[in-house]
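On clarity, I found the account of how folds are encoded harder to follow than it need be. For illustration, here is how one protein appears when written out as sequence plus structure tokens.
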Amino acid sequence: MISIEKLRQPAVRAFIESLNDRDEKAFAEAVHEKFTYTHGEEEGDAAGFYTAHIQFVVTDQSSDGFTLTGVMLKTDDEVAARLTFFPAGYASVGKLGISTDVEIPRDSFIDALAHLGGGRAQAKPAVGTLRRLKLGDHYFVHRWGRGAMGSADWINTGEKAPDPDVYQSFHSPAHGEQTDEVRVSRVVSRLSVDLGWDGTYQKATARFHATLSFWEAVAWFSEKYRLAGESIPKVMGTLTLTGPPTLTVPEGTVISTEKITVTGGKPPYPIDFTREFPLTGLPLGTYTLTLANAVKTGGYWSSKYNTTIAIKDHSISFTVGG
């Protein structure tokens, strides 16, 4: 077997490494925007190749480094294959030809199968993945990337991470609170995200808080009367976490979506909820959390006036990894 570090062409090396690591972002950077591949009568683009082709173990390479022979894992089938790369500049691949009419020495084939990990790629952390590790008496943020000797490892960024729950905080609105109201009813609300640590790797904790009040005579008052039935205040909406655009999902993958219904317990009927989102193994990049189509119902005066309030959408973007 030939290790990835010994592949002669940088573009080919980046292609194989990102494929084997299942790093979709890195793979997208390793191919030209108009990349195509052919395999007999089969033809496709970068997204199609990445989805169907899981791993490639190299057993031989040509003198110029643009042709690799080895064992390919494609939708759970291991097959001997020859990959011929056509570069698009120095750092990316523009076209790839695949041939499976290849014979590999039996010993090489068996060795390659062993490195396929029993038919499954053993994914490494994506470059830029962050984790919290203790050194001495302090915790520091570490980033997965290339070290001084060229090998991938966890690199100490020098940034301390003393709080296990909060690394960065984000709010909607960014400053202050949002007010939505009708004639006799008001909601003051805020959505927040704390980007922290799930033991070692990152997690996101979302929190929503709203205070309710009603208008009487010349001023706004907190909900102070004990209410019953449909008059008990509640907020309903949809909370959605969307991941960054990827090669195979350019609009971004919906990580989680949930219909939220929160009822105030007793006067002054504060509205609160918390949700946690583990981020380990998810793509790095910009995530968006939204609370959309939220509506507050009930409250004092609900039997006499309209107290239903449409709450303007809350939206927060935050970056996972670094």
Remarks:
- The two ends are 33 Å apart (CA to CA).
